[in-house]
Amino acid sequence: MPDRSFRYPLRWHVMDALERGADILWPATFSRMTGWLLAAPAILLVGLLVLGLIQIGDASMHVLDTSTFRMSEAYTLANYADAFTSAVYFKVAWRSLLAAALTTALTLAFAFPYAYAMVRTRSATVRKALLIALFLPFFIGQVVRAYGWLIILGNNGIVNDMLGVVGVEPIRLLFNFPAVIFGLVQYMLPFGVLMLAPALTAIPEETEIAAGSLGASWPRAIWHVILPMARPGLIGAGIVVFTLSLTDFAMPAILGGGSQDFIANAIYDQFFRTADQGLGSALALMLVALGSLIVGAVFTLFGAGTLALGARK
Amino acid sequence: MRYTGKGLTRRGLMRSAMATSGAALVAGMPAGRLLAQDEPEKPSEIIVRAWGGSWVEALKAGVSNPFTEMTGITVRHDLTEDNEIQPKIWAAVAQNRMPPIHVNWDTTTNATKSALRGVTEDLSDLPNLANTTDLAKPVGLDGYPIVNTYGYVYVLAYRPEAFPDGPPQSWRDLLDPRFDGRIALYNDGIGFHFPAQVAGGGSLDDIPENMEPCWDFVREIKALNPLLGEDPDFTAWFQNGEIDVACTISTNALAAQQNGVPIEWTVPQEGCKFDTDGLWVPQGLPENELYWAKQYINFAISQEAQQVWLDGLGLPGVVPGLTPPEGLADDPSYPTEPEDFENLIRISSEVQVQNESEWFSRFKEIMQG
Amino acid sequence: MSTAEAVRTDTASTATTAVSVDGVDMDFGTGTLAVRDASFTLETGRFLTILGPSGSGKTTLLRLIAGFQTPTRGEIRIHGQRISAKPPHKRSIGMVFQRLALFPHMTAAENVAFPLKMRRHDPATTPDKVDAYLRLVRLDGLGDRRIHELSGGQQQRVAIARALVFEPDLLLLDEPLAALDRKLREEMQLEFRRIQKELGVTTINVTHDQREALVVSDEIIVMDHGEIQQAARPSEMYRNPANAFVANFIGVTSFLDGRFDGGALDVGGVSCAGTPVSKLDPGSPARGAIRAEQVRLGAPGTTLEACDTQLDGVVDDVIFEGERLVYVVTVPALGDAALRIYHHDPAAQDLYGAGAAVRVGWTEADLRIFKKTGEPA
Fold this sequence. Notes:
The structure holds three protein chains of three kinds.
Chain A: H1 10-25, H2 34-59, E1 64-65, E2 70-71, H3 78-85, H4 87-120, H5 124-139, H6 142-153, H7 158-165, H8 177-201, H9 205-213, H10 218-229, H11 231-246, H12 250-255, H13 263-273, H14 277-302
Antiparallel strand pairs in A: 1-2
Chain B: H1 10-26, H2 31-34, E1 45-49, H3 54-71, E2 74-78, H4 82-94, E3 103-107, H5 108-117, E4 147-158, E5 183-186, H6 193-199, H7 212-222, E6 227-229, H8 231-239, E7 245-249, H9 250-258, E8 264-266, E9 272-280, H10 287-300, H11 303-313, E10 344-345, H12 349-368
Parallel strand pairs in B: 1-2, 1-3, 5-6, 5-7, 9-10
Antiparallel strand pairs in B: 3-9, 4-7, 4-8, 4-9
Helix pairs in contact in B: 1-3, 1-11, 3-11, 5-12, 6-7, 7-12, 8-9
Chain C: E1 17-26, E2 35-43, E3 47-51, H1 58-66, E4 73-78, E5 81-82, E6 93-96, H2 108-118, H3 126-136, H4 152-164, E7 170-174, H5 182-199, E8 202-207, H6 210-216, E9 219-224, E10 227-232, H7 234-239, H8 244-249, E11 253-260, E12 265-267, E13 270-272, E14 275-276, E15 285-291, E16 296-298, E17 309-320, E18 325-331, E19 337-343, E20 357-362, E21 368-371
Parallel strand pairs in C: 3-8, 3-9, 6-7, 7-8, 14-21
Antiparallel strand pairs in C: 1-2, 1-4, 4-5, 9-10, 11-12, 11-15, 12-13, 15-21, 16-20, 17-18, 17-20, 18-19
Helix pairs in contact in C: 2-3, 2-4, 3-4
C-alpha cells in the first residue's frame, strides 16, 4: 500500500460545510440572482443617499419664515436666487475652488515623488518606513491633526520658539489662507500617495530603463514617459483630493481663524446657526452640483478610464 | 458654543460640597407640591441638554444633584451643541415622536425660535415664577414658553499687558494698528453688533431698520484681520498669546482667568450686549415626564438652586437676594441694580430672532470678503 | 574563445572590437555567482547570441553589457571605452526589451522619434529618419497608430526601429521574441537577421531558443550556471559541442554513460566506438553523446553500412513531428539506454511500430565522448 501523504486540508472541510450551509439558505437555482444579492447592501445605501438628496432638494425650495421658524408651504427658488446673488457665497465658493485646486496641485506634486520612491526603492526597509510614515498620520483624525498644527504653528509653538532662538519675532503662521492650504495638503498627502502608488506600480521599471537607454536623462524620462503613463493615477488622485478639499469643513474652521470659510462651513452655518434648512439645502445642492460638474468635466476630457474603469493595459 | 475645555476648579468643587449639604434645606420650599399625593409616576431619569465643562458642572452642583436627591430621579446631561439639538427637536415634534431630551438649556434667542415654531410647552404655571424678577420673563412672547434663568454680558476681555495705560475705554480703542490680527470676535458676530452700532456712530433705536453704522465699524475692524471663533477658541487664543482682546461672554473670561490666563474684562463707554439664557421643555413628552421636567425647571429658579448654580457661572440670576460670587459684586459683568444696566444693551428676543440670520450674513459677508 | 582572450586596451587593436568582456563576475549575494568569470570579445558588425536555459545568467550578462548593473569584478568595454564611463542615457546602445517597453501614450512614429528628441538630433531631419526606419521595419503608413492598435509583430517592429533610429554602436536584444507564437517568432527572427545585415550594427541577442540562436547569429555563446560553456560559430557549435551540456542544449541528443577505455566508450562491458572530445584518462567515467540524426536505423538482422558499432534494439515509441518521425529505441545491451533517432522519409510512414525489433548503429566520428561532469540538464 502506498503511503497516503495527502490529507484533505481542514480549511477545505470548513469551506465545504459553509457551501452546504449556503446551499440551504440560497439554493443553487437562485444563483443567477447572487450578484444582485451581493450588490443589494450597496444599492440600498446609494438609494438612501438619493432619497436624502431628494429631501434636501425639496427643502431647498422652501424659504424660512422667521416669525414662526417654519419652512414656507409654497415652492420657490428664492434660496437659489439668494445664494447666486450673494457676494459672500460667491466669495466662499471661489475660495473653496481655489483652495481645492491649489491643494490638488501641491498634494500631487508632493505625493508623486513619495509614491515613486515607495514603489521603486529596492530596500524593503525603506518601503516599510515610507508606508508607516504615510499611515501614521492617516490614523490620526483630521480634527486632531488640525489641533496639532495649532500647537506647532502657534505664537508660542515650536516653530516660533525656534525662530525666537535666532532672534525672529513671532510670526502669525495660523488663521490665514496659506495655513488652511498647508493643513489640507498635509491631510490629503496619504490619499494622493495611496492613489498614485498602484498607477506607478503598473508602469514596468523596464519602461523607465528603456527611456534611459533611448537617451532620456532621469528627469526627462519622468517628464516624458512616467508622468504621462501615470496620468490615470494622477487624475484619479486629483479627483479624490479635489473633491475632498472642496467639501472640507474642519481645516478652514480650525486653521482659518474664522475668516476662511469654505462652502461646507457656510452650509453648517445655515443649518445650525441660523436654522435655515432651506438656504442650507440650496447651498448643499449647489456644492454637489459644482463637484459633480468638475468631476464630470474631467471625465469628459480624460475619459472614465482614469479611474481604471475599463482601462486598457 | 460654550466653553468646554476645563474641568472643575477648586472653587467649583467647594460649591458642589455646599450644595450637597444644603439639599436638606431646599426640601422646604417646593416640597409642598413635590410630595403631594397626586404626583404622577416618576421616570427613572430625565435628560437635560447642557453646555459642557464648567457650565455643566455648575448646573450639576446647583440644580441636577439636589433635584436627584429630592426626587430620586436621575438627571442625565446631554452635551449635544445647542444649535445641533434644535433641528432634532424640531424634527421630533414635527413627526410626533418623543423628543430626544426633557429640558433644553438654551440661549433665549434660540429658545425663542423654538417657541415661535410652537415646539415648546407652556411653563407659566410654575409656582416659583412668583418669586422671580422681570428678567425671567421672555420679551415679546405670550406667557412662559421659556423661562430665563440668568443674564450675561458680552464683555470686552483683554490682556492687561497689551493695555499698559489702563483698560480700554471705548470699542474704538481696538482700531489701533497694533491690534492687527490680535482681536477675536464670535464667528457670527454675536454680541458685537449692538456695541458696534454705537461705536460706528449710530443709535440703538435704529435697530433693526438702519444698521449701517454697525457694518461700517465691523468693516473698520475687518481691516485689522480679526480672528473669528467660538467660546473654546477664545480661551485657547488668550492662553497661547494669539490675541490681545476679545468680545466674549464674561463666564468664558472668568473661566480663563480661573485657569491662570492673565485676562481682565470691562464694559466700554458704548456699552455691551446683555442677554439671557433659559430653560424650556419640548412638546411630545408623556404626561408624567412632562410634569417632572417642569418640576426640574421650577427648582432651577428657586433661590437655593440659583445661588449655587450661578456662583459657578459667575452670572446674575432671576431671583432677588442672591449673594454675588467673590469679587464680582461690583463687576460690570454682574449687573443686579437698575443703574448697573445703564451701560448694557438689551434688544428684544423678537427683534433678534427675526433679524439674526440677516445680521449673521451681513457680518459674514464683511468678514469673508 | 571559451577561455578569455587577451583583451587589449590600446585603441589601435580595438578598432574592430566592438565589445570586450573581461573576467566579469556578478554577485547578487544569493550564495552563487549569477555570472562567473565571463570573458569574450565581439567584432564590429557581428551578430552574437547568448544562449542558455533560464537562470543561466544570460540576461544578467546582457544587462551588465547594457550598463544597467555594474559587475562585481572585471571590466566591460564598448569600442575600448568602459561602459561605466557614461550614464545610461549617454551611451550609444539600442535595446529591445523582453516586454518591448514601448510607450503606450505615444504613436508608433512618436516612439521612434523619442530617442532622436532625447538625444537632441536636428529636428529638421527627424521626420525623414522616422520614416526611413519605419520603412526599414516595414511599418510604412502605420506611424500614426497608437501602440495598442498594432499587432504583436508590429509592436516588435516599432521596438526595433526605436532601438536603431539613433544609429547606436551596439544593439541589444533581451529575449524580445519569447512571448510570440512560433510562426511569428520565426518570421521575426528572419527580420532581425535581415535588418542587422542591412545596417551592419553590432548586435547581442539573448535567448533560450536554440533554433533562434542557430538561425540569426554569426556567433553563439552558450551559458549555464553563470558560466560560459562554449563560444563558437553556429555550425561549429552544432557539430562540435564542447561538452555534454552544449551537446544536450543544442540539437536532440542521446547519452550513454560508461567509462573511457583508452579508445572507445565502455558501457557495461559493451564497447561503443566514439571519438573523445575532452582530454580523458583511460578508465575515467565518461559520457557519450550522439545526435538523433546520426543514429542509423535498420531492420533486425541487417548490417548497417559503415557503422562502427551495431546493436539490437526495440522500438519503444514513435513520435510523429510532421516533417519527420522520431523513434525512441531502447538497447538492452546498453542497459536499456534509450536512443532518439530521426527518420526523414515522409513517404515511408511508420517503418516500424512500437515493440518492433530494430538494428541501430553509428560511426566512430558520430559518438562524441565527454568527460563526465554533472548530469545533463
